[in-house]
Amino acid sequence: MADKSRFTKEMQNYYDTLPAFLQESISQSTSSFNDLQSLRAFAQRVRDEKKS
What we know:
The protein is mainly α and 52 residues long. It has one domain (4-51). The protein is built from 3 helices and no strands. The chain has helices spanning 9-17, 20-28, 36-51. The N and C termini lie far apart (25 Å). The relative contact order is 0.22.
């Protein structure tokens, strides 16, 4: 599971704006999110997969 306690304030602010299904995907992910860029990239991949 993603360790949200390691999110920067910027990452947490972005996470808080996401729809619930993306927040859940991030929370359940085994990925490590080291910065805002990696968090955004993951959210975009999930969005793209949902559209397919």
